Amino acid sequence: MRDFDETTMSVELARAIRVLREGAEPSPALRDRLLRELAEAPRPAGRAPRVWTIRPWAAVAAGLCCVVLGGSAVALFSERHLDVARVTADVVPATVRFRFDASGAGRVALAGDFNAWSPTSLPLTRAPDGRTWVIDVPLSPGRYAYAFVVDGVLRQDPGAPRATDDDFGAPSSVVLVRGS
Amino acid sequence: MARVGTASVTPLPVRGYNWATMTDAALVRAALDGDSGAFTTLVDRHLRVCLRFATRMLGSVEDAEDATQETFLRAHRALARYDGSTEFRTWLISILLNRCRTMLRSHGRRSAVIVADDRAVASAAARSLLDDEMLRDAIERAVARLEPAQREAFLLRHVEQLSYEEMHQATGVGISALKMRVQRACDRLQGLLREDRHA
Fold this sequence. Notes:
The structure holds two protein chains of two kinds.
Chain A (H helix, E strand, L loop, with lengths): L10 H11 L6 H13 L15 H24 L14 E8 L6 E5 L12 E2 L5 E8 L2 E9 L2 E3 L17 E5 L3
Antiparallel strand pairs in A: 1-4, 2-5, 3-4, 5-6, 5-7
Chain B lengths: L23 H9 L3 H23 L2 H17 L10 H19 L1 H9 L1 H9 L5 H13 L3 H12 L4 H8 L3 H24 L1
Helix pairs in contact in B: 1-2, 2-3, 2-4, 3-4, 4-5, 4-9, 6-10, 7-10, 8-10
């Protein structure tokens, strides 16, 4: 297909483009207004604060809680089959199984609202069939947008509804996790 | 195309690092780690481009400032969703495009007024174009008369100088379709400017 460039276009058009590339200098007032709004906006979501402070008694209490809750979870799941679901339907409280078919992929990970869209923190495991990649993720009830990161490239889940609010340049799917 | 993954993310420099020398990806990471100065640097780097594009698209400085401000606020809120698979500028422009499209839909009247304002165009064309300000006005009016999809493609390609791949990433439109829009926009714009010259 013919493609315009500045060597083939008319003088008028080339001059117009040069004019259009000039101008539109932001006013200091706009910058100030924007920075004020940003200063009042909540910190960008998705990453834990870098510095934690915790009191010794709180650490001990948290440890005890982990022991009690962890023991309960082991007891519960050892008796019940861990029922997992694809997407919106049949979602069991707490755990959702994500699957992606990519026989030729070297690495597949899950990125979504639940892990701040980290491309590496939730790697999928290749199933014995060599084609399917799987990961089980515990999720609280809610709506989550997500995508698979296949060898570094974001891919929408072909078996799930597309997120309607993915206006940030990347395709994403949506999973709804129902409460028990 | 930059790829998502650990390799595309520059390690966070220590505090006190010179923001001006940091890549956009490193600034995003720093901003996500709570360094508000890093996002300010991103604003300073990209504010002019966003405002220029929005001004040409919307034909109103006031609307363009609103769209630009909203774009940066949305980008700030959604910063964790920037995955590094595209240039930060391309990602930002994709948000701005959505804002501009929304505003054009809701301000349909404004666009119609510009397009229908042939008398003003003819009147301006009848005067000498030697005056720079008048030349600029004539060009901006001609751009405003392009269909929004053609205007968008033309501005991204020739004014913001994005590659077709970047345009595809920002707009979601196929590369062939984008080339066609740019070609038609150029044809139309050349015709309009020629009319101006002969008027």
